[in-house]
Write a structure and sequence with these properties.
The two termini are 13 Å apart. It contains 9 helices and 7 strands; from the N terminus they run αααααααββββαβββα. Helix 3 crosses helix 4, helix 5 runs antiparallel to helix 6 and helix 8 runs antiparallel to helix 9. By secondary structure, it is an alpha+beta fold. The N terminus is likely disordered. The chain folds into 2 domains: 102 residues, no CATH class; 118 residues. It is globular, with a radius of gyration of 17 Å. Strands 4-3-2-1-6-7-5 form a 7-stranded antiparallel β-sheet, with helices on both faces.
Length: 228
């Protein structure tokens, strides 16, 4: 199923069109969720608007942690990780929560790149494109438009895989990403892993080429799907 911008915006009830941040802007929660690094506290706020299973499980873990039941919280999160059909971003959300509780993945699991977010500064904003290991992808245009792709699709899957593979192995200069601030001058790419998110400012040409190829690919496939 293709999740278009209007459907995702509906998840954020309580924010009027006049006060909601522009999609793709620095304070936009839709953009921030591309990085799948929200804290347990942030998921508690998210669950008030989003009725999917994972936020509620994360909220339950947050409640257990606040009550001093850290082992129980960790056990719950590990159990949710074993659910079949796990989406890539769900796995990243769960690992962000586990790290918050002091659990780190082993080296092999922790180093695997499960997703990539590429950000290109523009005169009036920023173009952002994200690809995940499960074949899903996101594109937020600087204008405020967006494409949210979750349908199994060989074309989008291959473009996304190329984007992820272009970042492997990580280039020298990559560092942990401390904030979700938009880039101001140079493009940057963020690698999403079970051990955390890592950013590279001014990525090599192969990353630029793979990332910019996914943008028109998503636009073309989205247009064809809407006309079908």
């Amino acid at each position: 199923m293709i999740k278009l911008l209007g459907r995702l915006l509906a998840l954020f009830k309580g924010s009027s069109a006049k006060t909601a941040p522009k999609v793709g802007s620095e304070g936009d929660p839709i953009r921030q969720m591309l990085f799948a690094s929200q804290s347990l506290h942030e998921h508690t706020a998210l669950a008030r608007r989003n009725h999917s299973k994972d936020p509620f499980q994360l909220v339950a873990a947050a409640k257990l942690a606040r009550e001093g039941k850290k082992p129980e919280a960790i056990k719950l999160l590990r159990e949710v990780l074993q659910w079949p059909g796990r989406e890539t971003r769900s796995e990243l959300f769960l690992w962000a929560a586990l790290r918050e509780l002091g659990v780190q993945p082993d080296e092999q699991l922790g180093s695997e790149v499960l997703g990539v977010v590429f950000e290109m500064p523009m005169k009036k904003g920023c173009d952002t494109v994200a690809a995940y290991a499960d074949g899903s992808a996101r594109y937020l245009n600087f204008s405020g438009a967006g494409i949210f792709w979750d349908a199994p699709d060989p074309t989008i899957g291959a473009l996304g895989r190329n984007m992820i593979d272009a970042t492997i192995p990580p280039s020298p200069g990559i560092r942990p990403r401390a904030t979700l601030a938009l880039p101001r001058e140079k493009p940057q790419v963020t690698l999403l892993t079970r051990s955390g998110n890592y950013v590279l400012v001014g990525p090599p040409q192969k990353v630029l080429d793979a990332s910019t190829a996914l943008m028109p690919g998503l636009t073309s496939r989205n247009k064809a799907a809407r006309q079908a």
